[in-house]
Amino acid sequence: MLNLFKKKEKEPENLEEILSQFKDLKKNFERISQELESLKNQNKFNIQKVGIVRFNPFREIGGDQSFSIVFLDGTDSGAVITSLYTRTGNRVYGKPIKNGQSEYLLSEEEKKAINKAKYENYKSKTERGGDERDGDERGGR
Length: 141
Hints:
It contains 3 helices and 4 strands. The protein has helices spanning about 15-45, 110-120, 125-130, and strands at about 50-55, 65-70, 80-85, 90-95. Strands 1-2-3-4 form a 4-stranded antiparallel sheet, with helices on one face. Strand 3 (about 80-85) and strand 4 form a beta hairpin. It is rod-shaped and about 85 Å long. It starts with 14 loop residues before the first helix and ends in a 13-residue tail after the last helix.
């Protein structure tokens, strides 16, 4: 661990000692900068964005029991998982996402979940206004 503020046992007595301390600080700063850059690059591949949309795919049955949830990293890649709930069972689908797109056909709810993860996670609730759920747009499959 770097102790920038830890007092040395003796103060520098001349210009050479001061320059030597600055040289050490410069080396430490460069090392820390490299480590920070490495962490930034590694962090791109961690889950950073999550979006969820609840919906009712069948108007005559129940409430908003079905959902689409997406997990994206810093490159907008990850997966979307959709659960379709019916009285007789539950079906779960997963689709890979790369750069915000999928090679598979996406439902409107899945597209909304992706957009929520990409854009709306960074807005405050007051900017969005209203309810978090997207239950007002219901459609069959």
